[in-house]
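Supplementary Note 2. Why include the ligand at all?

Several targets in our set were suspected to adopt different conformations when bound, so apo predictions alone were not considered sufficient. For every target with a known small-molecule partner we therefore ran a joint prediction. The input for iron/sulfur cluster is given below.
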Amino acid sequence: MARLIDSGPGCPTPTPIRAANASEARGLVYDDAVKAETDALYPLVKDFVTPMEWPAIAPLVAEINRIKKAKNAVILAHNYMTPDIFRLVGDFRGDSLQLAREAAEVDADIIVQAGVHFMAETSKILAPEKTVLIPSLEAGCSLAASITGADVRLIKQKYPDYPIVTYVNTTADVKAECHITCTSSNAAQVVEAIAKEWNSDTVILVPDQYLAKNVAAQTDIRIMTWPGACEVHELFDAEDVNQLREAHPGVVILAHPECPPDVLEAADFAGSTAALANYVKDNSPNKVVLLTECSMSDNVAAENPGVNFVRPCNLCPHMKRITLENILDCLTKMKHVVEIDEDVRVKAKAAIDAMLNLPKTDKPLAFKTGLKPMDIEVISAS
Ligand code: SF4
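The joint prediction is reproduced in token form.
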């Protein structure tokens, strides 16, 4: 079960605790010039950073923004970044699909991926001519770690007649072995399109068993999957939803499709992080809860000041490896350059292009809620 917090920012921005030392160690001070440069930015994070903490953070922010300009670099910030990164230094913000599209199109020499490693690989796959940096090599992902390219080759040997869809939360090696990628914004659309193309009634969707089960409930296509899970979303359960409804009558409950199916059954709305953010913006519910990673609620709350948020806090430890300090360091020293073998990159790009070439929807697709969870076949690793 998730740790439930009734109100206030779901997870405190960790940076201020370290930022004073971090700025000092890098010879950065909060002088008049930094103050003038950053004063306009403070209101963007005023709910997360106190006025006392701001002089510790502002020099890091000013320096990152200065180096970005000097080096023609951009920062792609995932929705799960803490608000200091998301709102103060991120040039493009969104879910992994939105960021992948930006990586391919953006006019920049350097991309800093404020997200986890598979996202930086996706940027490199789509923008090989750009230098892609990941601020921390420890920013992994339990889903990406759950399956390898060798696993997919074995699946293909075992089930040669079925197309294999990989969620984008996988390594380049895995993408290179699969026929098409999907995100939580388009998973059902991708499954139906590839089933039609292959004239198959069955599709293998790896590695997230919960996403696969949730997609299976939305489509007539038979889906097989892999025993992977997101260590953040798998902690939610239907009991959390019931407790939230009891404690907060009238609350609207939104869930991410990496949550187990009983959560989506009990929720009011489900979709990718982009779909959840759109829902809050379009509907302005009186009181809402987002069953996903902590920082997402903080970032959506900052953009919807009239909405009351109840914040169940499940932190992604991998996303939290990214800090203002290591963003600055990787940009200054050009550290942690992401490289991918060209043969792997070309094959992985074909799988991503197959997804990007599907008709673009105006908005990320929502998952129907209230559907009975489905039992689907989980492929064994042996
Ligand atoms: S939230 Fe889950 S899927 Fe996203 S990076 Fe963290 S472990 Fe991976």
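Residues 1-10 have pLDDT under 50 and may be disordered. The chain has 16 helices and 15 strands. Comparable summaries for the other entries are listed in the accompanying table.
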